[in-house]
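Memo to structure team: turn this sequence into structure tokens by end of day. - J.P.
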Amino acid sequence: MRSFHFNGSRIVKTGIAIFLTAIICEWMNWPPVFAVITAIVTIEPTVSDSIKKGIIRFPASAIGSAFAVFFITLFGNSPITYTLAAVSTILVCYKLKLHAGLLVATLTAVAMVEVIHSNYLIAFFIRLGTTTTGLLVSTAVNLLVFPPDYRKDIAKNIQLVSERTGTVLDRLFRTILYEGHGERTEEKAVIQQLTEVIRRTETLIQFQRDESTLFSWVRGNKKDLRLAEEQLLFLHNLEYHLTTLLHIPLQHISWTTAERDRIMHAVTELAQNLKNSAGYNHDKQQQHLQTITDLFWIDHENATKDNKAASAPFSQEFMILYELAAIYHAVNQFYYHTAAKYPDNVLDKQ
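Reply from structure team:
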């Protein structure tokens, strides 16, 4: 269901647009093939894209039709007509920066060579009529049938990334603190998956923002979009710090068992918050951050003393604690300030 907007709904909308377009063209006694081609390619992920690209595809199709009529007049139905109509259409559309309409225009130019045998001027205007029909029908279907609304998918993706980030954070530190030289292959795979989900969610947010410029019922939810963008930025920062942790070479960790347990306890608490933000306690997490910060400065002083003449003054313990402190700071900033800015719409309510 997570990909419904890209697969299920788009297939249904395409089918409806084809059916309605063909009926209208038959009623007008126009050849439906050109209108159907236009309708197929005009079903975009957002209505705004359908309109924007439709505005480009109309003149592009007109150019393709004009070249088809022109070269049919000169050379008839011949191989040179197909070639010149297609190449000329591509060149002109490219020069005019009608890139979104280039494919449709070229297909139109080539297809018209086969079906036009007389009344070239009438055929040209009929082609413009079929293009207009395909554009209008597909845009209307995109607007009225399963209208694009990605807010639920955005919220689900953000919650999913947050939960998996908590899981991988816990696994990663158990490997670092207690296993040492583990390959961390599983953690790398999960972080790569998180990166892909974050990128897809960024695309969904952009789609939703495009829709908000057109429709008043979406425009009222810009606050939700701003929250989602801030949440995604927070998760992207976490993904960055987790990736950095993966690339820290693990040699002999000098922490005592008690220090490892203190760090692991803090990490576990943080991971639980990421999995279930309803239990977030700012004061408690600040105490854990203070623990991490104290260890950080102790390791920093030790590293400075032991590596005064060394070319690499930062120990692995120092780098691990630095990244953990950065993660803690990001989480605390996110929950504390986001809850203050959006008291009725925080992550646990997605």
